[in-house]
User: Which sequence fits this backbone?
C-alpha cells in the first residue's frame, strides 16, 4: 500500500500500468494552470479555480547535479543527486529531484513523472514522493 | 515632526564585526560590538536613537530585543525584521523610512546572526522527507547557472573569474572572513571541490557569524555631528516581492524569478532619479558567483547577453569601470544572514566618505546595494556622497 508524503500534490494509481499525475489547478476565469493547487488565481486574482491532473510528461528547462548526499533520503545513489526544473505542457514549471546520474541529462529533453518510495510508516505503508526521470527512449 | 524627502535621510554612522565563525561569542556580544561601533562612528549615544529595526534569521523569538538591551533600556520602539538573506538591507530600508516619514529623528538598523550554530542544529530542515524539502541552496542557484550556460554559452571560467575577484577584494578588507594570503586565480577556484554543477566550493559564500549596524538621520544632523566629513545620503531604498509571470515555481525552495531584481532596481533608479551609469560601486547577492554575473545585466550595468564581456574585460574588479563587491561580497567578506546587507551599507558608506583604504574606488559618488532573500524578496538601496 502506497501513501503520499502529503495529500493533494500527486496521484497514486491503483493500476500499475497507469501513470501518476501531478495535481494542479486551472483558473476558470483566465485559463492559467498552476502547480500545486491553489484557490486564488495568481494571474487574474479571481477565486474560481478547479482541480486538474497535470503531466506526467514535460521537458527539462534546467538541471544540476549536487555532489552531496540527499538529506532525508534513505536511498542515496551515487553519493549525490540531480535536481531539475520541468516545464509541463499545461504551463507550470515544476522543481523536482531527478532520478539518474550526472551524465544523463540535457536541457530540452523529454521527462516523465515517477513516484519514489522514501520510507515505511508505522502502519507499514510505503510513503512516496514524486520526482522526474528522463523519458524512456525507444 | 513633518515628513522629509528620502534624500534628506543620511547614513550617520556604520559599524560591524569581522565576519567569521566565533563559537565563543553570543549574538548579543556581536550585536553590542557592531552597534557601539556605529554609534561611535555617528558621534551619538544610544539615548539619541528614536527607533530600532533588528534583523536576524536564526535566533528565536525576541532575540533582537534582548540584544538591544546591551546598549541600554531607553524604552525605544523596536521591530524585528526577517527576510532571509535580504534581512539586514530590509532593516536598513525600515530605518530610512522611519526617519523619512518623520516618525523619529534617528533610527538604528542592526543585524546579527550565528549561521554556524544554525547549521549544526535544526537549520538543515527535513531534506527530502517533506513535499517542499530543503535541499542544498547551491543547487537552486546552480539551476540558474546551467540555464545561463545553455542560453548564452557562458563557461564555468566566467563564474570562477568573478569568485577569484571577490576573494582578492576580501583580502584587502579587515572585516572580511576570507583573507587569502595569495592572489586567488580562476584556476584555483575551478579546481576546488564541486558542490553542484557547475558551482565549486570557492564560488560559494562561507558559513559565518557576525553583526553589522547603520544609524540614519537627517543630512543636517549628519553635518552637525561630523563637521567636515562627506555626508552619505540615501537616494532610494525599495523592497519588492515576486511578481507573477508564467513559469513561476511555487513549490520548493526558490531563489525567485530573475525579473524581480530588474524590477526592484528599476524602481530604485526611478526613486533616486538616476540611472546605472551614475553608479560608482555596486554590492550584490553573490552567495554564488553565477548570481553576480546575472545581476550585471539585471541591475542595468550592461545589455542582456553582455555580462560575460564585462567579466572578460575585468570591468567589475577594483580599478574597473564599475567595481562590484569591493569588500569581497558574500563570497569573501561573508554572509551570516541578518547582518549581510548592513555590511554592504558599511562598505558603501566608507567608499562614499573616501575611507575605504586599499579598496577605495576613486571619486566614488553613488553606491548601489542589492540583496535577494529566498522565498522570495529583492531589495535595492542607492546611497550618494552629498553633492557639494
Assistant:
Amino acid at each position: 500500500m502506497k501513501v503520499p508524503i502529503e495529500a493533494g500534490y500527486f496521484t497514486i494509481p491503483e493500476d500499475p500500468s497507469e501513470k501518476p499525475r501531478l495535481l494542479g489547478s486551472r483558473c476558470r476565469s483566465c485559463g492559467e494552470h498552476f502547480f500545486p493547487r491553489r484557490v486564488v488565481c495568481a494571474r487574474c486574482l479571481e477565486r474560481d479555480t478547479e482541480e486538474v491532473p497535470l503531466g506526467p510528461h514535460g521537458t527539462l528547462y534546467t538541471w544540476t547535479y549536487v555532489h552531496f548526499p540527499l538529506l532525508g533520503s534513505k536511498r542515496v545513489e551515487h553519493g549525490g543527486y540531480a535536481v531539475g526544473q520541468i516545464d509541463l505542457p499545461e504551463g507550470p514549471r515544476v522543481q523536482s529531484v531527478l532520478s539518474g546520474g550526472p551524465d544523463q541529462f540535457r536541457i530540452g529533453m523529454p521527462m516523465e513523472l515517477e513516484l519514489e518510495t522514501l520510507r515505511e510508516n508505522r502502519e507499514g505503508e510505503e510513503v512516496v514522493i514524486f520526482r522526474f526521470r528522463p523519458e524512456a527512449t525507444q | 515632526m513633518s515628513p522629509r524627502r528620502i534624500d534628506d535621510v543620511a547614513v550617520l554612522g556604520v559599524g560591524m564585526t569581522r565576519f567569521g565563525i566565533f563559537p565563543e561569542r553570543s549574538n548579543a556580544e556581536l550585536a553590542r560590538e557592531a552597534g557601539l561601533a556605529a554609534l561611535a562612528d555617528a558621534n551619538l549615544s544610544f539615548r539619541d536613537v528614536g527607533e530600532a529595526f533588528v534583523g536576524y534569521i536564526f535566533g528565536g523569538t525576541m532575540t533582537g530585543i534582548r540584544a538591544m538591551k546591551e546598549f541600554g533600556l531607553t524604552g525605544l520602539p523596536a521591530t524585528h525584521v526577517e527576510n532571509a538573506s535580504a534581512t539586514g538591507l530590509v532593516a536598513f530600508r525600515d530605518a530610512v523610512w522611519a526617519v523619512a516619514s518623520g516618525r523619529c529623528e534617528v533610527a538604528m538598523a542592526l543585524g546579527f546572526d550565528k549561521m554556524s550554530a544554525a547549521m549544526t542544529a535544526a537549520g538543515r530542515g527535513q531534506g527530502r522527507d517533506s513535499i517542499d524539502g530543503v535541499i542544498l541552496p547551491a543547487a537552486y542557484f546552480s539551476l540558474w547557472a546551467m540555464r545561463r550556460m545553455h542560453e548564452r554559452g557562458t563557461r564555468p571560467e566566467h563564474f570562477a573569474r568573478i569568485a577569484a575577484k571577490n576573494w582578492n577584494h576580501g583580502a584587502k578588507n579587515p572585516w572580511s572572513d576570507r583573507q587569502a594570503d595569495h592572489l586567488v586565480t580562476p584556476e584555483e577556484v575551478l579546481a576546488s571541490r564541486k558542490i553542484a554543477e557547475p558551482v565549486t566550493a570557492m564560488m560559494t559564500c562561507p558559513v559565518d557569524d557576525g553583526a553589522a549596524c547603520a544609524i540614519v538621520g537627517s543630512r543636517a544632523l549628519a553635518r552637525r555631528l561630523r563637521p567636515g566629513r562627506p555626508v552619505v545620503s540615501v537616494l532610494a531604498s525599495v523592497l519588492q516581492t515576486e511578481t507573477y509571470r508564467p513559469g513561476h515555481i511555487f513549490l520548493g525552495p526558490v531563489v525567485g524569478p530573475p525579473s524581480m531584481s530588474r524590477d526592484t532596481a528599476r524602481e530604485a533608479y526611478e526613486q533616486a532619479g538616476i540611472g546605472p551609469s551614475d553608479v560608482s560601486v555596486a554590492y550584490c547577492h553573490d552567495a554564488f558567483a553565477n548570481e553576480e554575473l546575472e545581476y550585471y545585466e539585471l541591475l542595468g550595468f550592461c545589455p542582456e547577453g553582455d555580462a560575460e564581456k564585462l567579466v572578460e574585460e575585468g570591468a567589475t574588479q577594483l580599478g574597473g569601470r564599475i567595481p562590484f563587491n569591493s569588500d569581497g561580497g558574500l563570497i569573501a567578506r561573508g554572509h551570516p544572514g541578518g547582518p549581510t546587507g548592513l555590511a554592504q551599507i558599511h562598505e558603501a558608506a566608507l567608499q562614499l566618505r573616501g575611507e575605504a583604504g586599499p579598496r577605495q574606488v576613486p571619486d566614488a559618488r553613488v553606491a548601489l546595494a542589492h540583496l535577494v532573500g529566498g522565498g522570495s524578496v529583492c531589495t535595492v538601496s542607492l546611497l550618494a556622497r552629498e553633492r557639494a
User: Anything to note?
Assistant: DSSP finds no helices and nine strands in chain A. The mean pLDDT of chain A is 92. The beta strands of chain A are 2-4, 22-27, 33-34, 49-54, 57-66, 81-87, 93-98, 110-120, 126-134.
